[in-house]
Design goal:
2 domains, five-stranded mixed β-sheet, Fumarate Reductase Iron-sulfur Protein, Chain B, domain 2, Ubiquitin-like (UB roll), two-stranded antiparallel sheet, single chain, alpha+beta, about 240 residues
Length: about 240
């Protein structure tokens, strides 16, 4: 299989050192089909063991390897070098999140926002003797929103999270909508109160970046707009 030589310019940053961020170049020759993640693993194994990045499943399931390649937020495990259209690749960490080291970002703030929307069922009445069954026709609205893998790609492309750290963000609001529309839940009013604010559904700029970037087809903006219809509009 023919190979091609690429130059990867990776943003390096070690905040505890006090040194400013810098780009470091690595060259490697790879065959077609090699992903950004595979290239980073090769660099780490063969050229620079100090390079830090996050990954786990390597199959677009866990969301751990979200980063920026040539200016586009994507999962490194499914972004192929040859598909980027150039042999010079720039790799950077996700924006709007604090960098821990190199391509690793601190996910605590992002995950805390998801917890704020109470991402668990609060069913009404006593528990049934067995499970709570849901008719497939009642699951249509909620089902797409269960596909979120918490990769934070939507958080990284949202203009509001970039300027307001208090904003819940598209991932948390999509998670909220997933439980709001679950036929088994009985806490709709309480849930609506959680996001009826400027840091909730009313803070969204409705630019649809989050829906366009999601690797799993989740549409946070649509969920936000539908939730707005269920709460009292702000003056």
């Amino acid at each position: 299989m023919p190979t091609k030589r690429f130059t990867l310019s990776v943003k390096r940053h070690d905040p505890p050192s006090g040194e400013p961020p810098r780009f470091q170049e690595y060259e490697l020759e790879v065959e077609e089909g090699v992903t950004v993640l595979e290239a980073l693993l090769r660099i780490q194994a063969e050229q620079d063991g100090t390079l830090a990045f996050r990954y786990s499943c390597r199959g677009a399931v866990c969301g751990s390897c979200a980063m920026v390649a040539n200016g586009e937020v994507s999962l490194a495990c499914r972004t192929q070098l040859h598909g980027l259209g150039t042999d010079e690749i720039t790799v950077e960490p996700l924006p709007h999140l604090e960098v821990v080291r190199d391509l690793v970002v601190d996910m605590d703030l992002f995950l805390e926002k998801n917890i704020e929307v109470r991402p668990w069922l609060d069913p009404p009445g006593p528990d049934p003797p067995r499970e709570r069954l849901v008719d497939p026709s009642d699951w249509t609205e909620a089902e797409p929103y269960t596909n979120c893998i918490l990769c934070a790609s939507c958080h990284a492309v949202c203009p509001v999270t970039g300027r307001d750290p208090a904003y819940l963000g598209p991932a948390a609001l999509a998670k909220h909508y997933r439980f709001l529309t679950d036929a088994r839940d009985g806490a709709a009013e309480e849930r609506l109160a959680l996001v009826d604010s400027e840091v909730g559904v009313w803070g969204c700029d409705v630019v649809w970046n989050c829906s366009k970037i999601c690797p799993k087809g989740v549409r946070p903006t649509q969920g936000i707009l539908t939730t707005r219809e269920r709460v009292k509009p702000k003056d």
